[in-house]
Amino acid sequence: MIQFVRDWKTVVWCVVSAVLLGYWIFFATPVSAAIISNTLALAFLAALLALLFGSFLACGIMNHGVGARMLLVATVVAALLPVYIYVSAWDSAIGKLGWITVIARDEFHPVLTRWLSAIWIHGVAGASQVAIVLLIGWQAGRGQYEEQGLMDVGPGAVFWNISLRRMLPYIFVSMFWVMLVCCREIAATDIYQIGTIAEQIYLGYALGQSDQLLAIWPDGTTGVGYGVHLVTIAWTGASGLLFLGWLAQVDLDLQPNRIVAKKSRAWKALLGWLAFAIVIVVPIGNLIFRTCFVIELINGAPYRVFRIEQLPHSITRVFTDYRPEMIWSLLIGLAGATLLISITVILSHVSARQIAWRGFLFGSIVLTLALPGPLIGTSLLKFSQSLTNRMLIHVFDRTIMGPLIASSLFVWPMVAMLVWQWFRQTNRELLNQSEVDGAGTWSQLFSIVLSGRLLQLLGFYLLALALMLGELSACQTIVPAGMDTLPRLTLGLLHSGVEEMTAAVSLVTATVIGTIACLGFVLLSQHETTR
Fold first, then answer.
1. DSSP β-bridge partners for residue 295
2. Closest Cα partner for 497 from 121, 88, 115, 112?
3. CA dihedral (160, 162, 167, 172) positive or negative
4. Which candidate, 520, 518, 469, 181, places its Cα nearest to that of 336?
């Protein structure tokens, strides 16, 4: 813990946080101060909720048996589902057209307020990510300190004096990650009209005022100037640097048989399955239940009634009515996953030998982590509008190049960190010996690093594909006219409330992304088991 506090990345984060606080108090206009307040309040409260449910999930996974392994796979899959799927899943129950409000005959009066809805959705969406961070932290110590402590004192004393202190850095880091996700995403904030920094950038694009949002320094009396953008992005960048620094110090290993405890506990299983129900089962159940509603005329008045036969009908309509959106999403996803894996593999291998390339890799991860999704999209849009070459204009206006670049930049940090961790586990002695024998960089890459590890590489490719298929925040503003994707379609439908087809589209999207993510994780685990 002392080493964590003294680390220079932590010092950078503290300094940037102090600058953000000073700007917030002394220099920001009321509009800018409100935006900073909304951003940090939503991120912090969602992180607290995610920590609660994520701790429950981690407890359930740290047990024996098939149930714990199934829970781990489900947690990894849930961590890769996009935020807008959680928005659709929960809004389908408690939103203005949710099945609870339909049954209560109180339509257009949601159960929760806008703020509570956004906090709940981001908290539930981040729970699985918190659980993964906590599991990695637990696996780093293998639980041996707790086992030694139990020989002298009771479980309560071990928890407060050993487990909590040892896991405290991982608790902080997991909360930083959830806060980063909240600062970068727009799905929940756009639907529930929460004025965060990312939402303001997207709102400026939607209203055609993106130039005015960044027009003045310092802030004017009514506008949002460079100040609020720079200090907020600097804070998210410092948080990303802190997370990357933590990742560089741990061994990323999510093998079920290496993280489970030696003794099963009934209360751990109960907490784990309770969190599993809240994070995964209930949201998917909401979508299924909402898909089964259909409008019928009763005594001449339209009513929504439950019909189980509506489920296959709505699912079938997704593949017929929204086929172009599915094709465009798949094309962008496949191209983006191929591009990301190719670049990250090469950069990760080269950076292991040259410190300059390592600095470039780390810098690109931190920079893209700091940027809200709409800022990536709008910046790329302005760049495409400034082009004068006809060929380049055609590429951005008639092909998938714009959304491909925007989505890839948004997904880049997650994919790069995973692949880089994978390269860290390569046998360095074998690489050094091959270099002495005259093997070059590319010979080492294909003959040593990738040889016999193609299954794992395919697993990473599938994880990258799952992330690309769910990306919304960056590509929302850059998709050319006449082209659309499933994430953009879903967000548009969500503005009117979750009706039958909205729930069906979300259910199909969640199933596709979940299946791809599950297959990718199984391939990674299978490779580790047989290696």
1. 304
2. 88
3. positive
4. 469
Please tell me the predicted confidence (pLDDT) of residue 167: 78
Q: Is the separation of the CB atoms in 87 and 121 below 8 Å?
A: yes
How many CA atoms does the CB half-sphere of 462 hold within 13 Å? 21
Q: What is the pLDDT of residues 98-128, one digit of tens each?
A: 777 767 666 666 777 889 999 999 999 999 9
* Residue 168, SS3 per DSSP: helix
Contact 61, 127 (CB under 8 A): no
* DSSP per-residue letters across 424-485: HTS-HHHHHHHHHTT--HHHHIIIIISTT-HHHHHHHHHHHHHHHHH--TTGGGTPPTT---
Instruction: Identify the CA nearest to 222 among candidates 23, 29, 27, 25.
Output: 29
Indicate the pTM of the whole model.
0.87
For residue 221, the tally of other CB atoms under 10 A from its CB is 8
The DSSP bridge partners found for residue 304 are 295
DSSP class of residue 49 equals H
301 versus 57: the higher-pLDDT residue is 57
Q: 312 or 137: whose pLDDT is higher?
A: 312
Q: Compute the residue count for the chain.
A: 531
Residues contacting 344, CB < 8 A, separation 6+ = 412, 415, 416, 419, 420
Cβ–Cβ < 8 Å for 260, 62? yes
Amino acid at 337: A
φ and ψ at residue 469, rounded to 5 degrees: -65, -25
**Closest-CA residue to 502 (of 516, 492, 511):** 492
pLDDT digits (tens, 9 = 90+) for 283-338: 999 899 888 877 776 666 666 777 888 889 889 999 999 999 999 999 999 999 99
Distance CA 422, CA 412 (A): 15
- Mean pLDDT, all residues of the chain: 81
Predicted local distance difference test score (pLDDT) of residue 105: 60
Task: State in Å, rounded, how far the first CA of the chain is from the last one.
Answer: 34
